[in-house]
Predict the 3D structure of the following.
Amino acid sequence: MVDYPMAERFFQKARQLEPYRLEDMEIFSTTLWHLRKDTVLSTLAHELVEFERLSPQAWCAVGNCFSRQQEHDLALKCFQRAIQLDPKFTYAHTLSGHESMANGNFEKAQEHFRNALNTNKRHYNALYGLANYYMTCDKKDQAEIHYKLAMEINPNHAVLMCCLGKVYEKMGRNDDAHQLYVRACLVTPQTPLAIFKKAKSLYKDRYYESALIELRRLKEIVPEEPKIYFLMGKIYKAMGDKVKALQNFTTTFNLDPKMMHVVKTAIERLDNDNEISMTTSAMSDTNLEGESSSSAAAAAFVGDDEEHNQHHQQDQVVHGEEDQSSAYTYDAFVDE
């Protein structure tokens, strides 16, 4: 359900009742990955290794620790160690697939996902991973098939709905995509990704007021997510309200200075008159030392990360650990 805080709460309760439990601790470690609780994750991995060094669960937890530090090669070695200990440990195959995707080794990733399905054909996480692989290869038809297969197993998963919706958008099936986003919001009303996708869909269909209503609701959940303000700026621009558009573009930059090039281009496209064109220099006089999204907000927003992929493959804005300003282009960002 992408409710990581609640998942952590009950995993912790289970560990209090059974401190030496190994079963499902690999899932707990991924939960902590999404919540960005590095210290808790490191402690869990250390304890699991002390309990049973030869358990695949322990090595999955250790691998997740390295993954959080962007040490993808070391993480992959840990997941492979888990497979060595138990070749039928499905989750380790899937995590290896996502880690390979993060390394850009897409063919190897596909192999790992298929190995996971060979051990458990109902492992929807691996189907999700394969769908992402096909999207990377621009094989939209195959991506659609595999997202649907995953949804047959987990039909009420908001993230899967959003991913399939993205495929439909790329196919030009905007109405089908919108219906999925609406359904995702009904299934899990507090999933930020679903709300954002719905708002973006409304914006594309020029239902500007409805899109703003969704984004205002989203701001209450993740108030420091720059993508929200960027989209609001685009909506106000489309509505002809340049003042509010400029305010939201500036807020976007305050929250994530690495988006400077995107914001600058958006502002330049607002208008060519002096008042707007001088805003770039005016912005430098403002307090632009705002930090990027808080960890909790970012983790919640990139709920597009079901079980380990989005956090690897599409870290994009909120996950960037290094200066990626040169990677930002206006058109590419708008497409995302």
Remarks:
- The chain has 22 helices and no strands.
- The chain has a mean pLDDT of 84.
- Residues 224-278 form one domain.
